[in-house]
Amino acid sequence: MDFLISVDKMRACTLKHLAYCQDNEWAGYDPYDALNSPLVARLPLVNSRLPRVALTQVLKRSPINVRPLLLIPKTQNPKAIALFLMSALKLSMVQLIGDKDLIPSFTQTLIRLRSPHSRYWCWGYSFPWQTRTIVVPRGTPNLVCTTFVANALLDAYEQGWDSQYLDMAVSAASYLVNELYWTDGGSVASFSYPLPSLRARTHNASLLAAALLARIHRHTSDERFLDPALKATRYSVSKQKADGSWNYGESATQQWIDNFHTGYNLCALQSIGRYLKTAEFEACIRRGLEFYLCHFFREDGAPRYFHNRTYPIDIHCVAQSIITLLSFQDMEPKCVQLAHSVLQWAMNHMWDDRGFFYYRVLRLCTIRTSYMRWSQAWMLLALSTLLCESDSRVRQPQGDPQVAQAT
Question: pTM higher than 0.90, yes or no?
Fold first, then answer.
Protein backbone atom coordinates (compact mmCIF):
# COMPACT_ATOMS: atom_id res chain seq x y z
CA MET A 1 0.00 0.00 0.00
CA ASP A 2 1.34 3.42 -0.96
CA PHE A 3 0.87 5.60 2.11
CA LEU A 4 0.89 9.40 1.92
CA ILE A 5 3.24 9.88 4.89
CA SER A 6 6.31 7.73 5.36
CA VAL A 7 7.00 6.04 8.67
CA ASP A 8 10.25 8.01 8.99
CA LYS A 9 8.36 11.28 8.64
CA MET A 10 5.78 10.15 11.20
CA ARG A 11 8.52 9.21 13.63
CA ALA A 12 10.24 12.58 13.19
CA CYS A 13 6.96 14.46 13.64
CA THR A 14 6.08 12.40 16.71
CA LEU A 15 9.45 13.06 18.35
CA LYS A 16 9.16 16.79 17.67
CA HIS A 17 5.63 16.83 19.02
CA LEU A 18 6.68 14.85 22.10
CA ALA A 19 9.54 17.28 22.73
CA TYR A 20 7.13 20.24 22.49
CA CYS A 21 4.81 18.71 25.08
CA GLN A 22 7.69 17.77 27.36
CA ASP A 23 9.26 21.23 27.09
CA ASN A 24 5.93 22.65 28.25
CA GLU A 25 5.93 20.19 31.18
CA TRP A 26 2.75 18.56 29.79
CA ALA A 27 0.80 21.68 30.79
CA GLY A 28 -1.15 24.14 28.69
CA TYR A 29 -4.34 26.03 28.01
CA ASP A 30 -7.74 24.46 27.37
CA PRO A 31 -10.71 25.54 25.24
CA TYR A 32 -12.87 25.59 28.39
CA ASP A 33 -10.53 27.19 30.94
CA ALA A 34 -11.93 30.76 30.92
CA LEU A 35 -13.09 30.50 34.54
CA ASN A 36 -9.51 29.79 35.61
CA SER A 37 -8.78 33.51 35.23
CA PRO A 38 -8.23 35.21 38.61
CA LEU A 39 -9.30 38.49 37.00
CA VAL A 40 -12.59 37.07 35.76
CA ALA A 41 -13.24 35.49 39.15
CA ARG A 42 -13.35 38.97 40.72
CA LEU A 43 -16.08 40.21 38.41
CA PRO A 44 -19.66 40.12 39.75
CA LEU A 45 -20.97 38.98 36.37
CA VAL A 46 -19.43 35.52 36.74
CA ASN A 47 -22.00 34.76 39.39
CA SER A 48 -24.51 34.29 36.57
CA ARG A 49 -24.74 31.38 34.16
CA LEU A 50 -25.09 33.25 30.87
CA PRO A 51 -22.01 35.47 31.32
CA ARG A 52 -19.93 32.41 32.23
CA VAL A 53 -21.13 30.56 29.14
CA ALA A 54 -20.55 33.62 26.96
CA LEU A 55 -17.03 34.21 28.25
CA THR A 56 -16.08 30.57 27.75
CA GLN A 57 -17.40 30.58 24.19
CA VAL A 58 -15.69 33.86 23.32
CA LEU A 59 -12.30 32.56 24.43
CA LYS A 60 -12.90 29.20 22.79
CA ARG A 61 -13.84 30.72 19.43
CA SER A 62 -11.36 33.61 19.36
CA PRO A 63 -8.61 33.34 16.72
CA ILE A 64 -6.39 35.32 19.11
CA ASN A 65 -5.41 33.72 22.40
CA VAL A 66 -6.01 36.33 25.10
CA ARG A 67 -5.51 33.97 28.02
CA PRO A 68 -2.13 35.46 29.02
CA LEU A 69 -3.82 38.86 29.35
CA LEU A 70 -6.44 37.32 31.62
CA LEU A 71 -3.71 35.62 33.69
CA ILE A 72 -5.14 32.19 32.95
CA PRO A 73 -2.46 29.68 33.96
CA LYS A 74 -1.27 26.71 31.98
CA THR A 75 -2.23 23.59 33.90
CA GLN A 76 -1.64 19.86 33.91
CA ASN A 77 -4.94 18.15 33.22
CA PRO A 78 -5.46 14.55 34.42
CA LYS A 79 -7.08 13.52 31.14
CA ALA A 80 -4.16 14.95 29.17
CA ILE A 81 -1.67 13.14 31.42
CA ALA A 82 -3.63 9.92 30.87
CA LEU A 83 -3.42 10.38 27.09
CA PHE A 84 0.30 11.09 27.39
CA LEU A 85 0.73 7.92 29.43
CA MET A 86 -1.12 5.87 26.80
CA SER A 87 1.09 7.43 24.13
CA ALA A 88 4.33 6.79 26.02
CA LEU A 89 3.42 3.13 26.46
CA LYS A 90 2.82 2.79 22.72
CA LEU A 91 5.99 4.67 21.80
CA SER A 92 8.02 2.44 24.09
CA MET A 93 6.60 -0.57 22.23
CA VAL A 94 7.97 0.75 18.92
CA GLN A 95 11.22 1.76 20.65
CA LEU A 96 10.80 5.44 19.83
CA ILE A 97 11.44 6.50 23.41
CA GLY A 98 13.92 5.04 25.85
CA ASP A 99 13.23 7.22 28.88
CA LYS A 100 12.39 4.65 31.56
CA ASP A 101 11.36 7.40 33.99
CA LEU A 102 8.69 8.89 31.72
CA ILE A 103 5.96 6.32 32.36
CA PRO A 104 6.26 6.28 36.20
CA SER A 105 6.45 10.07 36.07
CA PHE A 106 3.03 10.18 34.41
CA THR A 107 1.53 7.71 36.87
CA GLN A 108 2.87 9.68 39.82
CA THR A 109 1.35 12.84 38.34
CA LEU A 110 -2.00 11.08 38.08
CA ILE A 111 -1.72 10.02 41.71
CA ARG A 112 -1.00 13.62 42.65
CA LEU A 113 -3.91 14.97 40.57
CA ARG A 114 -6.47 12.60 42.07
CA SER A 115 -9.70 14.40 43.03
CA PRO A 116 -9.62 15.22 46.75
CA HIS A 117 -12.36 14.37 49.22
CA SER A 118 -13.35 11.09 47.55
CA ARG A 119 -12.77 7.60 48.86
CA TYR A 120 -12.42 6.40 45.28
CA TRP A 121 -9.67 6.90 42.79
CA CYS A 122 -11.31 9.41 40.44
CA TRP A 123 -10.33 12.51 38.54
CA GLY A 124 -11.68 15.81 37.22
CA TYR A 125 -10.55 18.65 35.02
CA SER A 126 -8.06 21.34 36.00
CA PHE A 127 -10.58 24.16 35.53
CA PRO A 128 -14.13 24.96 36.62
CA TRP A 129 -16.61 24.81 33.78
CA GLN A 130 -20.13 25.94 33.16
CA THR A 131 -22.62 23.44 31.78
CA ARG A 132 -25.99 24.52 30.43
CA THR A 133 -27.33 24.42 33.98
CA ILE A 134 -24.59 24.31 36.64
CA VAL A 135 -20.94 25.04 37.33
CA VAL A 136 -18.64 22.06 37.81
CA PRO A 137 -15.90 23.10 40.25
CA ARG A 138 -12.24 22.59 39.43
CA GLY A 139 -11.06 19.08 40.24
CA THR A 140 -14.55 17.66 40.74
CA PRO A 141 -14.44 14.06 39.53
CA ASN A 142 -16.38 13.18 36.40
CA LEU A 143 -17.00 10.07 34.34
CA VAL A 144 -15.06 10.94 31.19
CA CYS A 145 -11.88 12.08 32.91
CA THR A 146 -11.95 9.12 35.28
CA THR A 147 -12.47 6.50 32.54
CA PHE A 148 -9.54 7.78 30.50
CA VAL A 149 -7.22 7.82 33.51
CA ALA A 150 -8.33 4.34 34.58
CA ASN A 151 -7.78 2.96 31.07
CA ALA A 152 -4.31 4.49 30.94
CA LEU A 153 -3.46 2.86 34.27
CA LEU A 154 -4.73 -0.46 32.96
CA ASP A 155 -2.55 -0.05 29.87
CA ALA A 156 0.45 0.37 32.17
CA TYR A 157 -0.56 -2.59 34.33
CA GLU A 158 -1.01 -4.84 31.29
CA GLN A 159 2.49 -3.95 30.11
CA GLY A 160 3.95 -5.18 33.37
CA TRP A 161 4.07 -2.06 35.50
CA ASP A 162 2.94 -1.81 39.13
CA SER A 163 -0.06 -3.93 40.19
CA GLN A 164 -1.19 -0.87 42.17
CA TYR A 165 -2.48 0.53 38.88
CA LEU A 166 -5.03 -2.28 38.62
CA ASP A 167 -6.21 -1.54 42.15
CA MET A 168 -6.63 2.14 41.27
CA ALA A 169 -8.58 1.28 38.12
CA VAL A 170 -10.86 -1.07 40.07
CA SER A 171 -11.54 1.75 42.52
CA ALA A 172 -12.39 4.04 39.59
CA ALA A 173 -14.81 1.41 38.28
CA SER A 174 -16.40 1.21 41.73
CA TYR A 175 -16.86 4.98 41.62
CA LEU A 176 -18.75 4.65 38.33
CA VAL A 177 -21.02 1.88 39.64
CA ASN A 178 -21.65 3.22 43.14
CA GLU A 179 -21.83 6.95 42.44
CA LEU A 180 -22.83 7.45 38.80
CA TYR A 181 -24.80 4.45 37.53
CA TRP A 182 -28.58 4.81 37.49
CA THR A 183 -31.62 3.10 36.03
CA ASP A 184 -35.33 3.83 35.95
CA GLY A 185 -36.06 0.21 36.75
CA GLY A 186 -37.04 -0.44 33.16
CA SER A 187 -35.11 -0.15 29.92
CA VAL A 188 -33.26 3.07 30.77
CA ALA A 189 -29.79 2.57 32.23
CA SER A 190 -27.06 5.19 32.11
CA PHE A 191 -24.34 7.02 34.02
CA SER A 192 -24.56 10.52 35.45
CA TYR A 193 -22.39 13.12 33.74
CA PRO A 194 -20.78 15.45 34.60
CA LEU A 195 -22.08 15.31 38.18
CA PRO A 196 -23.77 12.51 40.12
CA SER A 197 -26.85 14.71 40.57
CA LEU A 198 -27.48 14.89 36.81
CA ARG A 199 -29.27 11.83 35.44
CA ALA A 200 -27.90 12.27 31.97
CA ARG A 201 -28.45 9.95 29.02
CA THR A 202 -25.28 10.86 27.15
CA HIS A 203 -24.33 7.92 24.99
CA ASN A 204 -20.58 8.36 24.62
CA ALA A 205 -20.19 8.81 28.39
CA SER A 206 -22.27 5.73 29.17
CA LEU A 207 -20.46 3.58 26.63
CA LEU A 208 -17.04 4.76 27.85
CA ALA A 209 -18.07 3.78 31.37
CA ALA A 210 -19.47 0.44 30.22
CA ALA A 211 -16.27 -0.34 28.32
CA LEU A 212 -14.16 0.34 31.41
CA LEU A 213 -16.42 -1.87 33.54
CA ALA A 214 -16.16 -4.65 30.96
CA ARG A 215 -12.37 -4.34 31.00
CA ILE A 216 -12.27 -4.47 34.79
CA HIS A 217 -14.58 -7.49 34.76
CA ARG A 218 -12.17 -9.23 32.43
CA HIS A 219 -9.36 -8.71 34.94
CA THR A 220 -11.26 -9.40 38.15
CA SER A 221 -14.31 -11.54 37.19
CA ASP A 222 -16.20 -9.33 39.67
CA GLU A 223 -19.87 -9.67 38.71
CA ARG A 224 -20.89 -6.31 40.19
CA PHE A 225 -19.36 -4.62 37.15
CA LEU A 226 -21.05 -6.82 34.54
CA ASP A 227 -24.73 -5.98 34.90
CA PRO A 228 -24.35 -2.16 34.75
CA ALA A 229 -22.04 -2.49 31.75
CA LEU A 230 -24.50 -4.61 29.79
CA LYS A 231 -27.62 -2.66 30.75
CA ALA A 232 -26.10 0.72 29.88
CA THR A 233 -24.73 -0.62 26.61
CA ARG A 234 -28.05 -2.15 25.60
CA TYR A 235 -29.85 1.10 26.33
CA SER A 236 -27.49 3.18 24.19
CA VAL A 237 -27.61 0.57 21.42
CA SER A 238 -31.41 0.78 21.49
CA LYS A 239 -31.12 4.51 20.76
CA GLN A 240 -29.04 4.06 17.64
CA LYS A 241 -30.93 5.40 14.63
CA ALA A 242 -31.83 3.29 11.62
CA ASP A 243 -29.06 4.95 9.59
CA GLY A 244 -26.44 3.88 12.18
CA SER A 245 -25.99 7.24 13.91
CA TRP A 246 -26.49 8.39 17.49
CA ASN A 247 -27.50 11.75 18.80
CA TYR A 248 -25.04 12.99 21.41
CA GLY A 249 -27.69 12.32 24.04
CA GLU A 250 -31.40 12.00 24.63
CA SER A 251 -32.28 15.40 26.10
CA ALA A 252 -33.71 18.17 23.92
CA THR A 253 -30.39 20.06 24.06
CA GLN A 254 -28.33 17.06 22.89
CA GLN A 255 -29.77 16.49 19.44
CA TRP A 256 -26.64 16.63 17.32
CA ILE A 257 -24.39 14.04 15.67
CA ASP A 258 -20.65 14.65 15.67
CA ASN A 259 -17.44 12.98 14.65
CA PHE A 260 -15.40 12.23 17.74
CA HIS A 261 -18.27 11.24 20.02
CA THR A 262 -19.42 8.79 17.35
CA GLY A 263 -15.85 7.49 17.35
CA TYR A 264 -16.00 7.08 21.12
CA ASN A 265 -19.23 5.08 20.76
CA LEU A 266 -17.83 2.74 18.13
CA CYS A 267 -14.52 2.11 19.91
CA ALA A 268 -16.29 1.56 23.23
CA LEU A 269 -18.70 -0.96 21.70
CA GLN A 270 -15.80 -2.78 20.08
CA SER A 271 -14.02 -2.95 23.46
CA ILE A 272 -17.15 -4.17 25.24
CA GLY A 273 -17.57 -6.98 22.71
CA ARG A 274 -13.92 -7.97 23.02
CA TYR A 275 -13.72 -7.87 26.82
CA LEU A 276 -17.02 -9.67 27.35
CA LYS A 277 -16.46 -12.05 24.42
CA THR A 278 -19.83 -11.32 22.88
CA ALA A 279 -21.00 -10.62 19.33
CA GLU A 280 -24.26 -9.09 20.59
CA PHE A 281 -23.38 -5.60 19.41
CA GLU A 282 -21.64 -6.43 16.14
CA ALA A 283 -24.55 -5.51 13.86
CA CYS A 284 -24.88 -2.18 15.67
CA ILE A 285 -21.14 -1.54 15.20
CA ARG A 286 -21.34 -2.31 11.48
CA ARG A 287 -24.22 0.13 10.97
CA GLY A 288 -22.44 2.77 12.99
CA LEU A 289 -19.17 2.33 11.12
CA GLU A 290 -20.92 2.57 7.76
CA PHE A 291 -22.55 5.84 8.82
CA TYR A 292 -19.25 7.10 10.21
CA LEU A 293 -17.31 6.43 7.01
CA CYS A 294 -20.01 7.87 4.78
CA HIS A 295 -20.63 11.12 6.64
CA PHE A 296 -17.54 12.31 8.49
CA PHE A 297 -14.78 12.57 5.85
CA ARG A 298 -14.17 14.69 2.80
CA GLU A 299 -12.50 13.14 -0.21
CA ASP A 300 -9.22 14.88 0.67
CA GLY A 301 -9.18 13.30 4.14
CA ALA A 302 -10.41 16.31 6.12
CA PRO A 303 -12.61 15.06 8.98
CA ARG A 304 -15.97 16.78 9.32
CA TYR A 305 -17.04 17.86 12.79
CA PHE A 306 -20.75 17.27 12.19
CA HIS A 307 -22.34 14.65 9.95
CA ASN A 308 -24.03 17.26 7.76
CA ARG A 309 -21.44 20.04 7.50
CA THR A 310 -17.67 20.31 7.47
CA TYR A 311 -16.67 23.29 9.57
CA PRO A 312 -15.16 23.63 12.04
CA ILE A 313 -12.44 21.08 11.30
CA ASP A 314 -11.27 20.33 14.80
CA ILE A 315 -7.97 18.71 15.78
CA HIS A 316 -9.77 16.46 18.27
CA CYS A 317 -11.77 15.07 15.33
CA VAL A 318 -8.51 14.51 13.46
CA ALA A 319 -7.02 12.53 16.34
CA GLN A 320 -10.08 10.46 17.19
CA SER A 321 -10.68 9.76 13.49
CA ILE A 322 -7.22 8.23 13.17
CA ILE A 323 -7.71 6.15 16.32
CA THR A 324 -11.21 5.01 15.32
CA LEU A 325 -10.22 4.13 11.76
CA LEU A 326 -7.26 2.05 12.91
CA SER A 327 -9.48 0.26 15.42
CA PHE A 328 -11.71 -0.98 12.59
CA GLN A 329 -9.18 -1.86 9.91
CA ASP A 330 -10.07 -5.54 10.13
CA MET A 331 -13.74 -4.78 9.52
CA GLU A 332 -13.13 -2.28 6.72
CA PRO A 333 -9.69 -2.43 5.01
CA LYS A 334 -9.88 1.09 3.57
CA CYS A 335 -9.72 2.50 7.11
CA VAL A 336 -5.91 2.40 7.20
CA GLN A 337 -5.52 4.41 4.01
CA LEU A 338 -8.13 6.89 5.22
CA ALA A 339 -6.33 7.29 8.56
CA HIS A 340 -3.17 8.23 6.69
CA SER A 341 -5.14 10.67 4.54
CA VAL A 342 -6.54 12.33 7.68
CA LEU A 343 -3.04 12.73 9.10
CA GLN A 344 -1.72 14.06 5.81
CA TRP A 345 -4.46 16.68 5.72
CA ALA A 346 -3.71 17.70 9.31
CA MET A 347 0.02 17.97 8.62
CA ASN A 348 -0.71 20.20 5.63
CA HIS A 349 -3.22 22.46 7.38
CA MET A 350 -2.89 22.19 11.19
CA TRP A 351 0.75 21.42 11.98
CA ASP A 352 3.04 24.15 13.27
CA ASP A 353 6.71 23.43 12.71
CA ARG A 354 7.42 24.47 16.29
CA GLY A 355 6.00 21.07 17.23
CA PHE A 356 2.29 21.47 17.90
CA PHE A 357 -1.08 21.25 16.18
CA TYR A 358 -3.59 24.07 15.71
CA TYR A 359 -7.01 23.93 17.30
CA ARG A 360 -9.43 24.50 14.45
CA VAL A 361 -9.71 25.32 10.77
CA LEU A 362 -12.73 27.49 10.03
CA ARG A 363 -14.16 28.46 6.69
CA LEU A 364 -12.42 31.86 6.74
CA CYS A 365 -9.54 31.46 9.19
CA THR A 366 -7.55 29.07 11.39
CA ILE A 367 -7.46 29.20 15.18
CA ARG A 368 -3.79 28.51 15.91
CA THR A 369 -4.01 28.36 19.70
CA SER A 370 -2.20 25.41 21.25
CA TYR A 371 -4.37 23.44 23.69
CA MET A 372 -2.60 20.73 25.63
CA ARG A 373 -5.51 18.42 26.55
CA TRP A 374 -7.79 18.97 23.58
CA SER A 375 -5.15 19.08 20.86
CA GLN A 376 -1.61 18.01 21.69
CA ALA A 377 -2.32 15.06 23.99
CA TRP A 378 -4.86 13.63 21.56
CA MET A 379 -2.59 14.03 18.54
CA LEU A 380 0.31 12.38 20.33
CA LEU A 381 -1.94 9.41 21.02
CA ALA A 382 -3.09 9.35 17.38
CA LEU A 383 0.49 9.47 16.10
CA SER A 384 1.65 6.77 18.50
CA THR A 385 -1.30 4.57 17.53
CA LEU A 386 -0.49 5.00 13.85
CA LEU A 387 3.17 4.20 14.46
CA CYS A 388 2.21 1.02 16.33
CA GLU A 389 -0.01 0.00 13.43
CA SER A 390 2.76 0.69 10.92
CA ASP A 391 5.26 -1.22 13.03
CA SER A 392 2.95 -4.24 13.24
CA ARG A 393 2.65 -4.28 9.44
CA VAL A 394 6.41 -4.25 9.04
CA ARG A 395 6.64 -7.20 11.43
CA GLN A 396 3.96 -9.22 9.60
CA PRO A 397 5.54 -11.93 7.43
CA GLN A 398 4.98 -11.90 3.68
CA GLY A 399 1.73 -13.49 2.67
CA ASP A 400 0.08 -13.04 6.05
CA PRO A 401 -3.69 -13.13 5.45
CA GLN A 402 -4.24 -10.07 7.65
CA VAL A 403 -1.89 -8.05 5.45
CA ALA A 404 -3.60 -9.33 2.34
CA GLN A 405 -6.98 -8.30 3.72
CA ALA A 406 -5.74 -4.87 4.77
CA THR A 407 -4.28 -4.09 1.36
Answer: yes
